[in-house]
Amino acid sequence: MRVCVFAAVFALLISADAASADCNGEFTKANKMKVEAGPFRVTDRVQTIFEIDGKKSPAPPSVQMTEFVPPTSVHFRKETAILNEEWVFLGKEGWTKEDASWKSIPASEMGALVEGGVYETYFYATELTDLVCHGESVLNGRKVHSYSYNVSTEGLLAPVATAVTVYFDAETGRPLASRSDKSLTKSSMQHTETVLEFDPSIKIERPQ
Questions:
Q1: Number of domains forming the structure of the chain
Q2: b or e along 70-109 (b: 16 or more beta carbons within 10 Å of the residue's beta carbon)?
Q3: What is the extent of the structural domain holding 87?
């Protein structure tokens, strides 16, 4: 009897490991940036929420827009009430806009971005944990495949955990959207809604 029980438990463990491997492989394949899919635009609506005296107080939202022309062109813009940012990456070169003029990004910083996978995936998923493949469902009337996972990044005082859910079109395999929640402090969090749109008219050129 003990042998049978052990065999059954061992079989379940093997099955769980296989399912985990299949899920990792499925997500990695889906998330890999595909040159043949063409240029696309990513729009992030970021909302920071503070809790003061037990009441939630949302700050004005910010909008970030990033355009990609695979394999190695990126144009990023961020607009807030107090700050505007703009970057352009072309291969291993990069520029950032400061006071209406463009300044080259140091090669060491660009190298870190390239090694970090800025050109490799649709959704940021470096060192992800707790990946779950949810299979097929419906989002805004479209059949999708969704995945959820956690990402830990370095904060000012301690690592910051972000819970992410991403969605891919079930028919084309193209990424559609994501939602994420990040705990900034004990009394503040950040919620981001992301939409991706493929647009062959997008072009990215070296700044003048």
A1: 1
A2: bebbbbbebeeeeeeebbbbbeeebbbeeeeeeeebeeee
A3: 2-198
Residue 13 buriedness (CB in 10 A; 0-12 / 13-18 / 19+): exposed
State in Å, rounded, how far the first CA of the chain is from the last one: 77
Give the C-alpha distances (Å, rounded to integers) separating 104 from 97, 150, 156.
9, 33, 26
Say how far apart CA 39 and CA 202 lie, in whole Å. Answer: 6
Segment (H or E) for 6: helix 2-31
The pLDDT tens digits of the residues spanning 179-205 come to 999 988 878 899 999 999 999 999 999
pTM of the model: 0.83
Give the integer Cα–Cα distance in Å for 62 and 157. 24
Q: What contacts 5, CB < 8 A, 6 or more positions away?
A: none
Q: What CATH code is carried by the domain that includes residue 70?
A: 2.50.20
